[in-house]
Amino acid sequence: IMDLEPQKIIKLDESVVNRIAAGEIVQAPVNCVKELVENCIDAKAKHIQIILKMGGLKSIQILDNGCGILKENLPILCERFTTSKLKNYEDLQQIGTYGFRGEALSSISMISRLTLQTKTRDEILAYKVKYDNGNMIGNPMPCAGNQGTSITIEDLFYNVPIRQKTLKSSFDEFAKIFDCIAKYAVHNYKISFTLKKHGENNSIKTQISESPIDIVRVIYGNEVANSLLKVQAGDENLKFKMEGCISNANYSGKKGQFLLFINHRLVESKNLKKAIFDDLYRTVLPNTVQPFIYMSIEIDPRNVDVNVSPTKHEVSFLNEDLIVENIKKEVEAVLLKTNETRKMYTQQ
Ligand code: ADP
Ligand code: MG
């Protein structure tokens, strides 16, 4: 017989609420790395270095040469909802930074041991500081250091036993991080990225470059880079522009890649992917071949909702069907043009 006794409602402890919220934002090391890298880019860093132990499960260290953090900000840095990027709700309409909700560092500090060292241009010294559960431990310690910020995350999920069990191997976690950094490096080709496993050679090393294709060459290889064709689309009424590159009809890669950035955010779009991969390339490429696609789309920010959960990557935007159709048409034109030339050559 079911117990129908109503239960008393209580207000959860702040520490419980915080840890539950943190678990939603950081599901795997890659979520941490992405948040931290976005912070470096927001801080205008030109160089970002990432060093991992055990695919980030043991430690993640991120160094940047960005603007650094003011000493006076350090005490509340890892509290929930503390940010330098947003003041009013209305600012969300034209937010130019990746961050705005002030939740990343706080979440990470709830489920790991976080150490940070930072130096601004105008300070003579750097400061080193540790956090636990959102709180600064002791006072910032002055030390020598270069301009920028270095954050070390150790023992991620040490207090979330279930996450430790469900996470994949450090091999898989590293692969996810590699994929994420590769994509950010291509899109942010004016920033140099280094990714490596502690004590090993660089897995990714890019230089400040002239175009995304230079980075594709470094990370994904010559075969991909040599096959790339530039594409562009845009429409004033639909208020969007797209620039990117697509592998040509001769490309024979087996592993499809879709690097999609909308307003500089790494996102996914089922509709666009279907239009390009299934509806378009399937008619041009053999079944076993998957294209490599990089697209950077800029849409009037008023037409895209950025206020979704940080781990939700699927986007939707106004006039989606029309924009997708428009992009598909341009990609098709570029692809068929080169396909025709190829046919002509091979028939001669
Ligand atoms: P958000 O990015 O949404 O503001 P975060 O928790 O990611 O929230 O970061 C909180 C604040 O810490 C940022 O607003 C920024 O002022 C500062 N910060 C974090 N990382 C860096 C960094 N690498 N360089 C400079 N400032 C940083
Ligand atoms: Mg952030």
From TrEMBL:
Q: Where is the DNA mismatch repair protein S5 domain?
A: 216-336
- Where is the protein localized? Nucleus
Listed under GO biological process in this entry are: mismatch repair
One Gene Ontology term, aspect cellular component: MutLalpha complex
A GO molecular-function descriptor: ATP-dependent DNA damage sensor activity
* Superkingdom: Eukaryota
Q: Which family does it belong to?
A: Belongs to the DNA mismatch repair MutL/HexB family.
Task: Spell out the protein name for this chain.
Answer: DNA mismatch repair protein S5 domain-containing protein
